[in-house]
Amino acid sequence: MNEKQDNLSVQQHIERNIAVQQKFGDTVNSGNLREFEHLVAEDSLDHDPAPGQVKGPDGYMELFSKMRQAFPDLKVSVDQLVADEDHVAIAYTMRGTHRGNFMGVAGTGKEIHAHGVQIARFRQGKMVERWGSSDELGIMRQIGAVHQQAA
Hints:
Elements: H1 10-30, H2 36-39, E1 40-46, H3 56-70, E2 75-83, E3 87-97, E4 111-123, E5 126-134, H4 136-142
């Protein structure tokens, strides 16, 4: 349960956490990555980090900076959302055009779409933990870096 340090009701916690999660997505979509400083706690831990990703807002700024270099028109949309007092879980779809380096593969001009899931834990209006997974193999297949083998 959330540490009731801010005297909000359960519903207010849920609404605040959903709003922060929505702002997180808006930040990814807009490319205004400095906004992560207002949304992610300094010691926030990503349980599925990108290679070399540091804790906190700087880790997300670097990760999504690289993603937006690879896919400048990157857009993430939420397909499903479930929340409780401390957590927001989403299923999402990522879309973009491969224009720059992604995992060692130079831009191909191919459009991608990939699904993912994320569970984030919040404390006092900031993300403090994240668990998630995106279909990176699917992206690699879509840009032609990995070929699907016949069964």
